[in-house]
Amino acid sequence: MNTIAALSEAEIQTRLQSHGEWALQGTKLYRRLVFEDFVHAFGFMTQIAIVAEKLNHHPEWANVYRTVDIYLTTHEAGGVSERDFELLEKIEHLIGSR
Predict the structure, then answer these.
(1) Which residues are CB-contacts of 81 (< 8 A; sequence separation ≥ 6)?
(2) What is the pLDDT of residue 98?
(3) In CATH, which superfamily holds the domain spanning 9-96?
(4) The pTM is what?
(5) Which terminus of the chain is more exposed, N or C, with fewer CB under 10 A?
(6) Can 19 be counted among the known catalytic residues?
């Protein structure tokens, strides 16, 4: 069985320095995105869903009209793991291409 390890808070904070829009909230990485309207917000969520499915690592998120709140955590690790930063990088790539 392959165990997924949680990163230390120091490791997470160091990695977050290059991702200024993200923050650590408890045991989750968090970012809020605000779009032009609901269609753009939902379209972006659809793009993330496709990537997340390929990675077999899914975000926790909420959508209200044009706002999307994204939380990344690895339940098996009990906190943030390398998998969360992998998905974060993919999300950042999608943000950059919009």
Answers:
(1) 4, 5, 6, 7, 74
(2) 55
(3) Transcriptional coactivator/pterin dehydratase (3.30.1360.20)
(4) 0.93
(5) N
(6) no
